[in-house]
Amino acid sequence: MPTDPVYDCIVVGAGAAGIVVASKLAHAGKHTLLIERGDHLTYAIDGRRDHLRNQRLSRHGHNAGPPAGNPRVLVTPDGSEHVLEPWEPGYSNNAAAVGGGTPVYGMQAWRFHPDDFRMASRYGVPAGSSLADWPIAYDDLAPFYEEAEWTVGVAGDADGNRNQGPRAKAYPMPPVPRYAPGNTLARGAAALGIGAFTPPLLLNTVPHDGRAACIQCGSCVGFTCPSDSKNGTHNAVLPKALATGALELMAATMVAAIETDAVGKVTGVTIVGADGARRAIRSRAVVLSAGAVETARLLLASRSKFHPQGLGNAYDQVGRHLQGHYYPGAFGLFEHDVYEPRGPGVSIATTDFSHGNDDVIGGAMLADDFVPLPIIFFKQYLPPDLPRWGLAAKDFMRRNYRRVINLRGPVQEIPSPDGRVTLDPGVTDKFGLAVVRLSGTTHPETVRTADFIGERARDWLRASGAIRVWGEGPVLRLSGGQHQSGTCRMGDDPATSVTDRWGRVWDHDNLFVSDASLHPTNGGFNPVLTIMALAFRNGAHVAASL
Amino acid sequence: MAETDDPLFVARLRAVIDRIIPSDADPGALDLGADAFVLGEFHRDAAALAPLIEAGLDALFAETAARLEVPFDRLPPEDRDELLAEIADAPWFMALAELTAEGFYADPANGGNRDARSWTMIGYEHRLPDGPSGRLAPQKDS
User: Fold this and answer.
1) What is the pLDDT of residues A352-405, one digit of tens each?
2) Total domains present in chain B
3) Residue B140 pLDDT > 90, yes or no?
4) Cis? peptide before A66, omega within 30° of 0
5) Sign of the four-CA dihedral A289, A59, A105, A76
6) How confident is the model at residue A74 (pLDDT cuts 50, 70, 90)?
7) Cβ-defined contact of A47 to B138 (cutoff 8 Å)
8) What is d(CA A154, CA B62) in angstroms, rounded to the nearest whole number?
9) pTM score, two decimals?
10) Domain contains B129
């Protein structure tokens, strides 16, 4: 349609990264279209607290999408194939909503450790692994971490983390208060000599940026916020970007493919409606911020005679090295109440096991968990030898719901090139598009590190006075999930990466990636602040290049 | 799925659910409506489990009939517990136990935790401005 506008840039995916990139473009005066397959998600739209259908417990469905009609195929290590709905285990869902996962997330706002950017240099590359250094260092990203902390809004203790990289500025808000669970663990940390502090959260602990302070409810993660004090890209970044007048948001719209012209140059995208009708939208540049699974799918699905294996895939790198986070830990039972009703609940952490651990590669941050929903406590917190029925189960719930601490952390994964996203040759979604096929596993070194971190959690709980500790042991599997990353890694060599150090797809001067797909490794921390920081950095770069 | 509305099936189901979360000083599964929750889920998101659980119940009642003169649902609680302990690892029973717990411990709008009584029992406080299940309908002015 010749009357359609030609945008300066189309950003695909309005999540933690895409809204930031679109915002940088809009504030630079670039005419930008932001396309999101999900819809708006706020407390006013969905304030229902369904304990069985949310992004934390999706046993019977979930609240942040995507809905049915978007299957994926998982190939498990035994070789069997499973067609999965988005809320089923193994699907590697994140969310499909305006704001991505940020309207419902757990808000942990970590900067990666400086050595997280140089894992291969620090530890060497294990056989069979694709462990790699980032093409940039902590110091390159530090100003953008700061921009993310102050623009989106982080509450934290700037001096608490004795292992953090240099920071120029404190956080804009004071940290969350510490109650019984944190105080209990602080005593154990002191006994062990562990450096413990209050973790940073993307949360208004005081009124900030026109939004209220947290009301400390008991069901934070997985749900929209009743006081709009959970800071995400949907509330802290998007409204101001839209107010520039340079940004248009197109929600509930699926992108089918990236379009290229007769000489292979990117010209925009094709969207597909619920009726299957396709429409091309032109732009001078395209940025993919659809998450590590869907960004890879889009590149693989965008084939032409110049790019028979998909865009940016001349060296068969798109979709490989899929990572997430093993999240090992332990539960500790105490003789006294360690429950605090005032949420969100995450109140104490250590980074002493992020690096420098004997005999394992990397490590993890460890922190206590959110106030558990009772049904999550029942499904995940009970000791393995306790019957799940009868008076024994009921009595354990009654006596001990308030006496258990859950301590765990995200292990820096050692990537394998075989853990990957491809297109399934047979299964299609409700639009008729080829769906993602997930296969392979992480590298076995990840399991060893996860085992080590689980032991550290047990130590800490015991030193804090737990009379019994338990926890599941990690097994080798494919990772991904809400912390999905690594499928379009950035680098300095086109043969081993998908983009350059600015997220520009090799061989395409106007096609960019900005999301966790870029992470060569995914840190031993919750990744969202790094995703945002990279988006602030790369978004400014894209704007300057247009 | 019509079988799950059959009174015989419902009676059998309730006889087992009664022992999955028994009543004592605090309410049990039947007291809070967890049986109605399970039956509702058979028509909703747990439809795939209904045939498995129905076959399991049939087997349990047949086995009881072969061994005892009193049918399972007329046995005293301690005898029912003994029989259930023998099949506690059976997939149908594990699935039913988990479904029952989902109703009992989830938010009350799911139908199996009347007045959030299970939360009172364990000491969970929701601290939400719009009640234990949040806001049940979207705001019109959104």
Assistant:
1) 999 999 999 999 999 999 999 999 999 999 999 999 999 999 999 999 999 999
2) 1
3) no
4) yes
5) negative
6) very high
7) yes
8) 61
9) 0.97
10) no
Instruction: State pLDDT tens for residues A194-219.
Output: 999 999 999 999 999 999 999 999 99
How do residues A330-349 score in pLDDT, each as one tens digit? 999 999 999 999 999 999 99
Q: CB A218 to CB B126 under 8 A?
A: yes
Count of Cβ atoms closer than 10 Å to residue B8 Cβ = 11
Residue of A546, A478, A537, A482 whose CA lies nearest to A151: A537
> Which of A44, A50, A341 is nearest residue B127 as measured by Cβ atoms?
A341
Instruction: Please name which of A23, A67, A17 lies closest in space to residue A41, comparing C-alpha atoms.
Output: A67
Q: How far apart are CA A246 and CA A355, in angstroms?
A: 44
Q: Domain for residue B89, yes or no?
A: yes
Helix and strand tally (H, E) in chain B? Answer: 7, 0
Looking at the complex, report in whole angstroms how far the Cα of residue A455 sits from the nearest Cα belonging to chain B.
Answer: 29
User: Distance (Å) from the C-alpha of residue B105 to the closest C-alpha of chain A?
Assistant: 5
Over the stretch A284-333, which tens digit does the pLDDT of each residue have? Answer: 999 999 999 999 999 999 999 999 999 999 999 999 999 999 999 999 99
Boundaries of domain holding B115 = 2-122
**Phi, psi for residue A138 in degrees, rounded to 5:** -50, -45
Q: Is residue B70 included in any domain, yes or no?
A: yes
Mutate which of B122, B125, B128, B141 to test chain A, going by most A C-beta atoms within 10 A? B122
The verdict on a CB contact (< 8 Å) between B97 and A389 is yes
B61 domain residue, yes or no: yes
Tokens representing A448?
Answer: 């060893």
Domains defined for chain A, CATH in brackets: 7-43+96-165+172-545 (3.50.50.60)
Contact B135 A218 (CB under 8 A): no
C-alpha A37/C-alpha A252 separation (Å) is 4
pLDDT over threshold 60, residue B2:
no
- The predicted structure's pLDDT at residue B110: 97
Q: How many Cβ atoms are within 10 Å of A502's Cβ, its own excluded?
A: 19
Tell me whether residues B142 and A218 touch, CB distance under 8 A: no
Number of Cα atoms under 13 Å in the Cβ half of residue A367: 28
